Amino acid sequence: QKEVEQNSGPLSVPEGAIASLNCTYSDRGSQSFFWYRQYSGKSPELIMSIYSNGDKEDGRFTAQLNKASQYVSLLIRDSQPSDSATYLCAPANQGGKLIFGQGTELSVKP
Amino acid sequence: SAVISQKPSRDICQRGTSLTIQCQVDSQVTMMFWYRQQPGQSLTLIATANQGSEATYESGFVIDKFPISRPNLTFSTLTVSNMSPEDSSIYLCSVEVNGLNTEAFFGQGTRLTVV
What is the least distance, in Å, from the CA of B43 to any CA of chain A? Predict the structure, then answer.
């Protein structure tokens, strides 16, 4: 079992729709969770962090965390073509190091 | 966040040679890391750069191949030694600004091609 697994892409959604990105992790000791966005040829950019069970909203982005299920997700509302990128899920392990998933490529079609 | 300057941004190197990548941060940070991102892959942690002591390497990475320096709290270097085409990757410097929450930010990366 991989330490961090994300839903396989590419994920294609029409402009204005909700994009749902999912992630499961194996380390029950993880307490901090991050979502990064990476445009092609660019470095990862931190877009969301979440530390407690439940939802955290920031603009069009909502992160959801369920530690009992070892599951974290990212919802993007009103998706825009500019949201087209690879999204990386990164829990921090008990040592405080980020463990990255393989990423989900999102394509938002106009 | 922090402003992270990484250079060179890209390079093409001959096999058998070495390349040193520099990472400069605009503020003092506790934690600095080096990652590798192979083509089409996600990020893999190479090592944690420790100020004033030897870097801590992850499984599969060794100091002889990837020597790291961290002379102060704002600067680090990663050297890729005795390069082969398999070392062709993007190398990324990362810093944690808030040690409690492990939020990490990345430099723009160094795209290395070994020929």
Answer: 6
Question: Identity (one letter) of the amino acid at B114?
Answer: V
- Mind listing the pLDDT tens digit for each residue in B65-109? 999 999 999 999 999 999 999 999 999 999 987 655 668 899 999
CB contact under 8 A, B104 and A102: no
The pLDDT tens digits for A17-65 are 999 999 999 988 888 999 999 999 999 999 999 999 999 999 999 999 9
User: Scanning every residue of chain A, which has its alpha carbon at the shortest distance from the alpha carbon of B91?
Assistant: A43
- Which tokens is B68 given? 């790291």
